[in-house]
Amino acid sequence: MVIAGAELFTGNNLLAMAWADGRITTREVLRNWVVVCLANFLGAAGIALLVHLSGHTEMNGGAVADQYVRIAAAKCTLPFWRAFFSGVLCNILVCLVVWMAFAGRSVMDKAVAIVFPISAFVAAGFEHSVANMYLIPIGMLCVSAGSTITAGVDITWVGMLGNLAPVILGNLLGGSGFVAFIYDMIYRRDPRISP
């Protein structure tokens, strides 16, 4: 996204800054978030299907599939508020990545800006809605293919929505509230004062 110019829902939460500044309308920001979120879901689930069809999940005697199932099951059973606050923390880091990458002048500058915050949210296990749009569907595919750890695992569309709803809301608050609005307040200029 930062280097290749793609659209990522979590990074686009920074559009709240342009909205707060009056540069885009409420309708425009909401339309962007809905369209990009749905497109990210289709892309992530599509990649999950391709990975599954490639046979990747069968590697190591099915151990890769089993791990996907464990991850998806953990996400589908995460309590609402835990998923929400984990989503908030995740997208604070993601949007800081985007913000810092804007300061980079070269691909190397942007790459260095990306590494540490993304590594932090992955290492901490924070909830990223778009990553979950991949991990839960691939877990579902592994279960349908007969993963060896399917006993007692409930990975369903309801479970996925139960994860994505609080995580998306948390990502919105983290990116829009704790990064976009904070930086907007910090850098807001009085329009009566010329630069």
Question: What characteristics describe this protein?
Answer:
single chain; about 200 residues; mainly alpha; elongated
Topology, pairings included?
Elements: H1 15-20, H2 26-53, H3 59-76, H4 80-103, H5 107-124, H6 129-144, H7 157-187
| Quaternary structure state of the chains depicted | single chain
Total number of distinct structural domains: 1
**Architecture, according to CATH?**
Up-down Bundle
Average residue-wise pLDDT: 92
Largest sheet: none
Strand content: under 5%
Brief rundown of the structure:
This protein has 195 residues and is mainly alpha-helical. The protein has seven helices and no strands.
Description:
The chain is an all-alpha fold. The protein has one domain: Glycerol uptake facilitator protein, CATH 1.20.1080.10. Helices cover 72% and strands 0% of the residues. It is built from 7 helices and no strands. Helix 3 packs across helix 7 (157-187) and helix 4 packs across helix 7. The longest helix has 31 residues, at 157-187. It is elongated.
